[in-house]
C-alpha cells in the first residue's frame, strides 16, 4: 500500500464523502497519479465487499408502537421505519468501511492501543553560587545525551577548567564531564549521562585544576536542583 500523503483522502473518495471544493483536486490526482487511483479502486472494492457481506444479515430494529392519540391520516409509520433503517445502515456501513480504510492506511498495532508517549527530557537552570557570576541551562535527554549551555562565566585560567558534577543528598559528587570557557564567557558542551538522575539531588559546576585528583575542588560556581 502506498503511504504517500495525498491532499485528498482516497478512502473519502471511495465512499463518496469528498467535499465539493476537493473534487477538482481528486480528479487531478486520478488523472496524474496512478498510485492514487489504485488506492481508490482498492478501497472502493473493499466497501462493495462489505456491503455484500453485511447487507443480508442486517435488519432494522422493530418500529415503536404508534401513538394513536397523536396519529394523523398520513401513513407516517412505514415511511419513518424505512427512513430510519436506511439512515442507520448508511452510518453503519460508512463506519465499517472507514475502519477498514484507516486500518490499511495507518497500520494499527496488534494490541490495538496507542503507542506509549516518550518521556520528557530533564531541564535544569543552574544559578550562581557564593557570589560567582554566570548562568547555565542543562538539558538531559532520555537517551542520556546532555547539552550544557552557559554564559557569563569567567574565562578558564591557565591550567584550570570547569567540571560538571552530579551530587546526592549525602554530598557524594560524581563527575559528568569537563570543559573550558573562552574569552566570551560562553560554553556549549555535549556529554553523555549514564547515571540514574533520580538518585541525585543537584547538578554542580566547579572550577578544577588540570590534572587534579578527580575529586571536587570545593570551588562551585553554578548549581541547580534536580
How is the secondary structure organized here?
Layout: H1 10-14, H2 23-32, H3 34-54, H4 76-107, E1 122-128, E2 135-140, E3 145-151, E4 160-167, E5 173-179, E6 187-192, E7 202-209, E8 220-225
Antiparallel strand pairs: 1-2, 1-8, 2-3, 3-6, 4-5, 4-7, 7-8
Helix pairs in contact: 3-4
CA-based shape: elongated
Overall CATH class of the largest domain: Mainly Beta
CATH topology (level 3) name of the largest domain: Immunoglobulin-like
Mind telling me the CATH superfamily name of the largest domain?
Superoxide dismutase, copper/zinc binding domain
Kindly give the count of domains.
Answer: 2
Low-confidence stretches: 76-93, 95-111
C-alpha-based Rg, rounded: 34 Å
Please bin the fraction of helical residues: 25-40%
Distance between the termini: 47 Å
Topology, number of strands: 8
Q: What structural class results from the helix and strand content?
A: alpha+beta
Tally of individual helices = 4
- Main sheet properties: 8 strands, antiparallel
User: Mean of residue pLDDT?
Assistant: 76
Describe this structure in words.
With 226 residues, this protein is of the alpha+beta class. It folds into two domains: 10-63 and 76-107, no CATH class; 122-225, Immunoglobulin-like, CATH 2.60.40.200. The chain has helices at residues 10-14, 23-32, 34-54, 76-107; strands at 122-128, 135-140, 145-151, 160-167, 173-179, 187-192, 202-209, 220-225. The longest helix is centred in the middle third of the chain and has 32 residues, at 76-107. Mean pLDDT is 76; it is low at 76-93 and 95-111.
Amino acid at each position: 500500500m502506498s503511504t504517500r500523503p495525498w491532499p485528498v483522502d482516497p478512502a473519502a473518495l471511495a465512499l463518496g464523502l469528498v467535499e465539493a471544493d476537493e473534487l477538482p483536486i481528486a480528479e487531478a490526482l486520478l488523472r496524474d497519479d496512478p498510485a492514487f487511483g489504485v488506492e481508490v479502486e482498492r478501497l472502493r472494492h473493499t466497501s462493495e465487499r462489505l456491503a455484500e457481506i453485511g447487507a443480508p444479515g442486517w435488519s432494522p430494529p422493530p418500529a415503536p408502537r404508534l401513538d394513536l392519540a397523536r396519529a394523523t391520516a398520513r401513513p407516517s409509520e412505514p415511511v419513518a421505519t424505512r427512513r430510519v433503517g436506511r439512515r442507520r445502515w448508511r452510518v453503519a456501513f460508512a463506519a465499517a468501511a472507514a475502519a477498514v480504510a484507516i486500518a490499511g492506511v495507518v497500520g494499527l498495532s496488534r494490541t490495538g492501543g496507542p503507542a506509549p508517549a516518550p518521556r520528557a527530557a530533564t531541564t535544569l537552570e543552574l544559578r550562581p553560587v557564593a557570589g560567582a557570576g554566570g548562568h547555565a541551562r542543562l538539558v538531559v535527554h532520555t537517551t542520556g545525551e546532555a547539552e550544557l549551555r552557559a554564559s557569563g562565566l569567567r574565562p578558564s585560567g591557565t591550567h584550570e577548567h570547569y567540571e560538571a558534577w552530579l551530587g546526592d543528598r549525602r554530598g557524594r559528587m560524581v563527575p559528568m564531564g569537563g570543559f573550558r570557557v573562552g574569552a566570551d564567557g560562553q560554553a556549549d558542551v555535549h556529554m553523555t549521562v549514564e547515571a540514574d538522575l533520580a538518585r541525585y539531588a543537584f547538578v554542580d559546576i566547579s572550577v578544577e585544576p588540570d590534572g587534579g585528583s578527580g575529586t571536587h575542588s570545593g570551588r562551585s560556581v553554578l548549581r541547580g536542583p534536580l
